[in-house]
Design goal:
Blueprint lengths: L20 H27 L7 H8 L3 H12 L3 H19 L4 H7 L5 H12 L3 H6 L5 H10 L8 E5 L2 E9 L4 H17 L9 E5 L12 E7 L11 E5 L2 E9 L5 H16 L9 E4 L12 E7 L3
Antiparallel strand pairs: 1-6, 2-4, 2-5, 3-4, 3-7, 6-8, 7-8
Helix pairs in contact: 1-2, 5-6, 8-10
């Protein structure tokens, strides 16, 4: 049965006496509908980032008219669809420059730009340095690498390279800094929902998917999906959406210890292990599988699998 991270989530009550009961319900339902449709669009963009994504195509995914959709999208996320897609492509390009054996021109073309020059202008405006300079920067700096090595006990042999099956998850989207304070309430909500829906069984896994690199994406825009595995027959409902983590070769490291130390293991994987492994990360987000019950396990005994998709 799935075990959910225990982030000490406390219930928050709302004084409904301030509002008529039917109005509170109607407002809540409307907000949930907007959020669910915009999340469908976000997931669609993730899956089709290499394609042309005009406003009318994205509006059709949300089942809104283009006239209203761009206002709703901006209202929900604080960015236009063009700015959102451009930012995701630039952040992906930054990861490619760091971890993939590709030239700047190849990355420019794969990011939808017709020339090295056009890509360079946008990249420099986004990150403050030219892509060729970014590609040669040593990140993290040597001093930080030494610090990472001083706080982790991992060795290359601790990383298993193995095929993993596809995993279909029902999930909630969280936007904000990757930390217990941001993620905890969502894990609590998905756990309550899964329990009430009878989702849990002996094969259910609790999973957190982390789409952004904290070294690249601003904290307030970091995207995570927290969820539980479900069968092929499950269909999205309300704010609970579905995505499939693809099968394939993964680097898997088991982190032992508190969740707030997971960042150290990620930094070791990407700064130390990956550059020396001869491997490249695939165009899919890393995810975590939580192996024991945080409510019954001391923090120092918690086990979390970090799974990084690799190019075969």
């Amino acid at each position: 049965m799935a075990t959910l991270p225990d982030f000490d989530v406390s219930a928050r009550s709302i004084k409904k006496s301030c509002f008529p009961q039917n109005k509170v319900l109607r407002m809540s339902t409307t907000r949930a509908t907007y959020a669910a449709r915009i999340l469908q669009v976000q997931l669609f963009i993730q899956q089709h980032l290499n394609e042309n994504l005009p406003l009318d195509r994205l509006a059709a995914v949300a089942d809104y008219s283009p006239y209203h959709f761009h206002r709703i999208f901006r209202g929900q996320l604080g960015e236009s669809t063009d700015d959102y897609v451009r930012r995701l492509r630039m952040e992906r390009a930054a990861r490619w420059l760091r971890y993939r054996e590709k030239s700047v021109l190849e990355i420019a073309l794969d990011s939808g730009y017709g020339s090295h020059e056009a890509f360079t202008r946008v990249f420099q405006r986004t990150f403050g340095v030219a892509p060729t300079e970014y590609q040669t920067l040593e990140l993290p700096p040597p001093a930080l690498k030494e610090q990472i090595m001083s706080v982790v006990t991992h060795a290359p042999a601790d990383v298993q390279i193995k095929p993993l099956p596809s995993r279909r998850i029902a999930c909630l989207r969280v936007v904000g800094r990757y930390c217990p304070e941001t993620l905890g309430p969502a894990f609590g909500r998905i756990g309550q929902w899964a329990a009430s829906a009878g989702i849990f069984n002996q094969d259910t896994l609790c999973i957190g998917v982390y789409h952004d690199d904290p070294e690249v994406t601003a904290p307030e825009k970091q995207r995570a999906d927290v969820g539980v595995t479900v069968s092929d027959s499950f269909r999205p409902t309300g704010e609970i959406q579905v995505q499939t983590l693809t099968s394939g070769l993964h680097a898997v490291l088991t982190h032992k210890g508190p969740y707030d130390k997971l960042g150290d293991s990620y930094r070791w994987l990407y700064a130390v292990w990956l550059p020396n492994s001869g491997r490249e990360p695939a165009d899919a987000p890393p995810y975590e599988v939580y192996l024991n019950d945080a409510g019954q396990t001391p923090p120092e005994e918690l086990l979390t699998e970090i799974c990084i998709p690799l190019v075969a």
